[in-house]
Amino acid sequence: MAAHVASKKAEMEVAMLVRDVDVCRDINETHFNSKYFPEHKLPENIIATTNAKDALLGADFCLHAVPVQFSSSFLEGISQHVDRNLPFISLSKGLELNTLRTMSQIIPHALGNSRQPFTVLSGPSFAVELMKKLPTAMVVASKDKKLASAIQQLLASPHLRISSSSDVTGVEISGALKNVLAIAAGIVEGMNLGNNCMAALVAQGCSEIRWLATKMGAKPTTLTGLSGSGDIMLTCFVNLSRNRTVGLRLGSGEKLDDILNSMDQVAEGVSTAGAVIALAQKYHVKMPVLTAVARIIDNELTPKKAVLELMSLPQVEEV
């Protein structure tokens, strides 16, 4: 996203807050991030820093891409440098374990400012394709129409379309739960259960996301849009998906710890799965596919047993 924004306007300074000193030096000296996308040159108006105060000083917008489970502690640590009127654009998809908070709740809580301007950006968007400037469409959601419009202006380009929405709940919940569904899709693939099974599973998962999200106040139309069906298709059916890869390897018989230890990026669906059971209970929604993923991750169920359980559920009317 830093590369995308920076390439739109050469005179715009884009500060990139990174943790790794070597990555920081790399970006500033060579304009390459050798850890991620080493083959893509970054615009020269990106300035990397490991200092939060420097990164945030005089900022007009803040794009937040820290994984959900680490966002609270990270934001609390930098909160003294965040202007109370600085608009946040959240790119992180998931639910905080134990609290069940979404990013729209985590950010103001961690910063100690209930009025921190907030938007969420979501939709089917693999980072590598955005780097290649391939056509992409996303949605920005905010309760503040003016702010959503400002983010549209900031991000829209000839290869990136930005729709706007006021349904923050719908965009956040579908963005979080599609990662859990992608793990299920990967399991089906890893077990070689076929295309019929894949289609049935993803259709059922979409229904479960819709049942829960609408109970939480989401609009049904959001769930068939870019942040719902669009993101689900991308994450469930394409090999670039981290969450699908976790499922694929689980379905092939690998242990979860071995899979996670071998990955250098976060698969948000693993943590979010733990929150699914609590949400299903809280909102009295039956979610057999998504809760099965949580039980597989918690070692309560093997993928094979989960399939047998799901196939032996009562035959019901479609809703």
From TrEMBL:
GO CC annotations on file: chloroplast; cytosol
Subcellular location: Plastid, Chloroplast
Keyword terms: Chloroplast, Lipid biosynthesis, Lipid metabolism, NAD, Oxidoreductase, Phospholipid biosynthesis, Phospholipid metabolism, Plastid, Transit peptide
Residue positions of the active site: 178
GO molecular function terms listed in the Swiss-Prot or TrEMBL record: glycerol-3-phosphate dehydrogenase (NAD+) activity; NAD binding
Catalyzed chemical reaction(s): sn-glycerol 3-phosphate + NAD(+) = dihydroxyacetone phosphate + NADH + H(+)
Pathway noted in the entry: Membrane lipid metabolism; glycerophospholipid metabolism; Lipid metabolism; Phospholipid metabolism
GO biological process terms held by the UniProt record: carbohydrate metabolic process; glycerol-3-phosphate catabolic process; phospholipid biosynthetic process
Cross-referenced Pfam families: NAD_Gly3P_dh_C, NAD_Gly3P_dh_N
EC numbers, comma separated: 1.1.1.8
Residue ranges occupied by any Glycerol-3-phosphate dehydrogenase NAD-dependent C-terminal domain in the UniProt entry: 167-307
Residue sites binding substrate per the record: 93, 242-243
Residues at which NAD(+) binds: 70, 127, 242
InterPro entries hit by this protein: 6-PGluconate_DH-like_C_sf, 6PGD_dom2, G3P_DH_NAD-dep, G3P_DH_NAD-dep_C, G3P_DH_NAD-dep_N, NAD(P)-bd_dom_sf
UniProt cross-references to SUPFAM superfamilies, sorted A to Z: 6-phosphogluconate dehydrogenase C-terminal domain-like (SSF48179), NAD(P)-binding Rossmann-fold domains (SSF51735)
Family: Belongs to the NAD-dependent glycerol-3-phosphate dehydrogenase family.
Protein name per UniProt: Glycerol-3-phosphate dehydrogenase [NAD(+)]
